[in-house]
Amino acid sequence: MSEAEAKPAGRAIPAPAVTVESKPFWDAAAEGRFLIKRCTACGKAHWYPRAICPFCASDDTVWEESPGEGEIYTFSIMRRSPTGPYVIGYVTLDEGPAVLTNFVDCDPDSLRIGQRVKVRFQPTEGGPPAPVFRPA
Q1: Do 56 and 70 meet the contact criterion of CB atoms below 8 Å apart?
Q2: Nearby residues of 106 by Cβ (< 8 Å), 6 or more positions away
Q3: In the predicted structure, residue 46 carries a pLDDT above the cut 50
Q4: Is there a contact between 25 and 49 (Cβ–Cβ < 8 Å)?
Q5: Sign (positive/negative) of CA torsion 119, 48, 52, 92?
Q6: What is the mean pLDDT of the chain?
Q7: Which H/E stretch holds residue 4?
Q8: pTM of this prediction?
């Protein structure tokens, strides 16, 4: 079973809204690849992938494959849920951008700020798989 077909962990994730602008990202996610955008004008990587650079407003951006590795910046454990506890938070990717995500495949109480994590793709409710992070 590929990571894109991995069994869902925790709560169900709604299908993302796929737009013309985000379609390359979701197509890559379906293949198990994690893409970010990089501005060729200022050189900065950004998240969420979009056509206009949030730093310099240039439209000179390109897709770049990322290994999807980084560190936990912050997180919150949601203990009151019909599906059991789940964890959301931010990961600072090695390329620089911060990604709002779910943390999976771990004991929520074992997570720590600064902990290394890696992306995996979790099925959604009828759409392309969504990036989530697990301990590295």
Answers
A1: no
A2: 87, 134, 135
A3: yes
A4: yes
A5: negative
A6: 91
A7: none
A8: 0.88
Distance in angstroms (rounded) separating the CA atoms of residues 111 and 88: 11
Beta strands per DSSP E along the chain: 34-39, 45-46, 61-66, 69-78, 86-93, 98-103, 116-122, 130-135
Tens digit of each residue's pLDDT (9 = 90 or more) over 72-130: 999 999 999 888 899 999 999 999 999 999 999 999 999 999 999 999 999 999 999 99
Pairwise CA distance, residues 47 & 64, whole Å: 11
Rounded Cα–Cα distance for residues 104 and 130 (Å) = 12
Sorted by sequence, the CB contacts under 8 Å of residue 84 that are 6+ apart come out as 10, 11
Closest CA to 90 of 53, 117, 129, 108: 117
Query: What CA–CA distance (Å, rounded) separates 59 from 52?
Result: 5
Q: Nearest Cα to 121, choosing from 26, 22, 39? A: 26
CA–CA separation, 73 and 85 (whole Å): 20
